[in-house]
Design brief:
heterodimer; A: alpha/beta; Rossmann fold; 2 domains; six-stranded mixed beta sheet; four-stranded antiparallel beta sheet; 19% strand; B: mainly alpha; Ammonium transporter fold; 59% helix; binds iron/sulfur cluster
């Protein structure tokens, strides 16, 4: 195929839970469902305290085009609507529901009628699905693309983060729905191909899907070497199609759409049964957890309840990560709740929680050699320390996808991703200033012209 | 109230290799050369090597104490500098002169420029060059080597000498156009010839180099570009056997594998490393063929060290999807 794969790192796999079929957790006593679980506008709560709700009943209306509706994940009574702190800063309302333990399904659940492209997009929007593999971008917005422009659709089954096997389980346990979804995409977009890219450390998923895909035209499995971050959107597109997404452009600009397999399965489930996104498969693992396993959890369940359900801790947890160890977010405590795009909870013991102290950069070049996007983190760090925004601009720190390869591989333990995040801020401020200066100059010139005229 | 959790920016795991493990690998890779030096030059070789390592570590410790900086001897980089410097010295070097070399390397070149990663020239090599200029006669007194290494065991100096007397090194002969005396290419490869402690045995250095490349401590780019350039230029000048003698003679392997790959003082991209290697090869040949010194490896690396910031600028890696503005 002749595509030179992008570099990355051989992060440890630790897929301890790959063979564990997820167990459904009984509803917790209360769930707290934040109205902001996606990129874009938060949803608006449409229930009142005291109101009875059932599983799948809408409790939050999408707050605009780039937004997504939200549904009750348990049956019971709305207790209150309170403001919660989001871990990336800011607050949003959250609907707190006291569960009656019955998990009664909402009577109004109805499978949507999907007959053509437009009704398909409407169904995706109504299902409440957001990018479940990563940032949580509303899927309907991404999929609402001119089919004529789409050459390839890549289902991102790489699941390259250590520990996480939630997508692997979805690919195994819902393989038929997944392939059906791929076929749907093929029918509605008529691309050259719908691929599902899977890292070769998941041989079972590969062979299962190959078997199913063999019977369907236009749908194929694309095995990829297990190399982090194979599932980075730009990396996946490059390694499957050979195309490069240019700076400031979207995958669609080079004819590609990337979807996560769990996202696709959730859409198909909604189209089949009318059940929107209310629960998530999670990998629960890490050195502090007693029984690593996969669980199916109602959205809004607190981390404490999830950990308790799995059997609690082997050692007191000292660091909690929502997501994988390479890109996941360390959260302050067990009161955080599972949201739409949570796919793993890692609880680390004291030994794993503390990272080694940074030492001086030895200029070894490893961070450069291993950056999938060919950036130069060591030079970015120097430019940041010397406060040289023009250098940061030339070094393209704005392209950094914060995949973590550089920090992971650095023998001097430099916190390079952290520096990149800060450097992006510096660069943005610099660009804004340049723009303001240019505008001022233009205004002055215009004024000058007027005066002379 | 629950205990506080640690929070930090991702990633939350780190690779196993750290600065210390890298330096340890370099020390391991130098072991074959150390063994060869004892076989070829006798036990005083080991004394010189141990002395330089101890001096460099002690100097770093003392200097950092005085400056109230955190001690960095644990990262083993001072030990590496000491050993590489020792391997660049003749077996008969007076120890006080070696101490001066260590002081130049650690205090002047490394610490005064801000410690590990901040120096612009390779400390060990600069130490050698300063000694070469300051103590030119002691630094050019090459004890003859044991032709039968096994006989070297148990002796202080190599059995072929009682007093170190100046012998003509292979490079001296090559300067006049061809290998002379009883030197052969095989002897050059094995290293049973006169020269500094660690430079003579291309075989031992090659083993160490392969280990470093296997362990991904260095990339192949610089050594291969460096050695190939010397080979090709020598081939053009004097034919195949001359070229073979040129690459195995002198400090080429030691320089190309262990000094031109120093992280801080050489470019950090593959393209930059190739350019660096070719430049080193070019300058080495110019000095060897036309200069007044028989050897040019150290000078070539030093000159290229100075050019490194410019090479790095020309060979910046190109961001994927980056758009010029
Ligand atoms: S990997 Fe770390 S030590 Fe090596 S160049 Fe990059 S920042 Fe410096
Ligand atoms: S610079 Fe950014 S994109 Fe490159 S390895 Fe580091 S985090 Fe990943």
């Amino acid at each position: 195929m002749g595509i030179k794969l992008l570099p990355g790192v051989h992060a440890p796999h630790r897929k301890n839970t790959a063979d564990m079929e997820p167990v459904r957790m009984p509803p917790p006593a209360v769930v707290k469902i934040p109205m902001s679980m996606n990129i874009g506008r938060p949803a608006t709560p449409i229930v009142k305290p005291g109101q009875k709700v059932a599983v799948g009943e809408k409790i939050g209306e999408a707050g605009g085009f780039v937004s997504s509706p939200i549904f009750a994940s348990v049956s019971g009574t709305v207790k209150k609507i309170e403001d919660v702190l989001l871990f990336h800063g800011g607050t949003c309302p959250a609907v707190v529901i006291e569960s009656d333990g019955e998990q009664t399904l909402f009577e109004g659940l109805q499978a949507p009628e999907v007959t053509d492209f437009d009704s398909f997009i409407n169904a995706v929007a109504a299902s409440g699905v957001v990018g479940l593999g990563g940032a949580g971008f509303p899927t309907a917005v991404k999929l609402k693309a001119d089919p004529a422009k789409v050459d390839f659709i890549c289902v991102n089954g790489a699941e390259c983060e250590p520990y996480i096997t939630a997508d692997t389980r979805t690919m195994l346990d819902n393989s038929e729905r997944l392939v059906k979804g791929m076929r749907m995409l093929y029918d509605y977009y008529k691309p050259e191909h719908v691929w599902i890219g899977i890292e070769d450390n998941k041989p079972k998923a590969i062979s299962r899907l190959k078997e199913l895909a063999a019977r369907i035209d236009g749908v194929d499995v694309y095995p990829l070497p297990a190399m982090y971050p194979q599932g980075g959107e730009k990396v996946l597109i490059h390694n499957i199609t050979g195309r490069v997404v240019p700076e400031g452009k979207l995958p669609l600009d080079v004819g590609c759409i990337v979807v996560n397999p769990t996202t696709l399965v959730t859409i198909v489930r909604f189209i089949e049964t009318g059940m929107p996104l209310v629960e998530k498969v999670l990998t629960v693992d890490g050195s502090a957890i007693k029984n690593p396993q996969n669980v199916i959890v109602p959205i809004g369940t607190s981390l404490r309840d999830v950990a308790e359900f799995t059997g609690g801790f082997r050692e007191p947890p000292k660091k909690i990560i929502m997501g994988g160890p390479m890109m996941g977010i360390a959260v302050p405590g067990l009161d955080e709740v599972v949201i739409k795009n949570t796919n793993a909870l890692l609880f680390l013991n004291a030994k794993d929680a503390v990272l080694p102290e940074p030492t001086p950069c030895i200029k070894c070049g490893r961070c450069i050699a291993h950056c999938p996007l060919h950036l130069m983190p060591a030079d970015i760090e120097t430019a940041f320390q010397m406060n040289k925004p023009e250098d940061l601009k030339a070094l393209k720190v704005n392209l950094c996808m914060e995949c973590g390869c550089c920090s992971y591989i650095c023998p001097a333990r430099r916190p390079l991703v952290q520096t990149n995040k800060l450097a992006k801020g510096v660069l943005n401020a610099y660009n804004a200033k340049l723009k303001a200066d240019a505008e001022k100059k233009a205004a002055k010139e215009a004024a000058g012209k007027e005066a002379s005229a | 109230m629950e205990e506080m959790m640690y929070v930090s920016i991702s990633p939350h795991i780190r690779a196993k290799e750290d600065t210390r493990s890298i330096m340890r690998d370099v020390l391991i890779a130098l072991c074959p050369a150390v063994v060869a030096s004892v076989l070829i030059f006798g036990f005083r070789a080991l004394l010189v090597e141990a002395f330089c390592v101890v001096c460099c570590v002690a100097l770093e410790l003392v200097f950092e104490r005085i400056c109230k900086r955190p001690s960095t001897i644990g990262d083993l980089s001072a030990a590496v500098t000491g050993l590489i410097l020792a391997l660049n010295l003749p077996v008969s070097i007076p120890l006080w002169q070696a101490l001066v070399g260590c002081a130049v390397a650690i205090v002047v070149v490394k610490q005064l420029f801000g410690g590990i990663g901040h120096n612009f020239a390779n400390p060990a090599m600069t130490g050698r060059i300063v000694m070469f200029l300051a103590f030119s006669s002691a630094m050019a007194t090459w004890a003859p080597a044991a032709t039968n290494p096994a006989a070297g065991l148990g002796s202080w100096y190599s059995p072929a000498t009682v007093d170190a007397v100046a012998t003509a090194t292979p490079l001296r002969y090559l300067k006049d156009g061809a290998l002379g005396g009883d030197y052969t290419i095989l002897r050059l490869f094995l290293g049973t010839v006169g020269g500094s402690l660690g430079e003579t045995s291309a075989l031992a250095l090659l083993i160490g180099g392969c280990y470093l490349i296997y362990r991904k401590v260095i990339s192949w780019h610089t050594p291969v570009a460096f050695i190939c350039t010397v080979f090709v230029l020598s081939l053009l000048k004097g034919g195949a056997s001359f070229a073979a003698a040129e690459i195995f003679a002198g400090g080429l392997f030691l320089g190309a594998i262990f000094m031109a790959t120093d992280y801080a003082t050489t470019p950090s991209t593959s393209a930059g490393r190739v350019v660096f290697g070719i430049g080193c090869g070019l300058i080495t040949c110019l000095i060897r063929f036309f200069g007044s010194y028989p050897e040019g490896v150290s000078f070539s690396i030093l000159l290229m060290n100075i050019l490194t910031p410019y090479i790095s600028k020309w060979t910046m890696s190109k961001p994927l999807g980056g758009v010029k503005q």
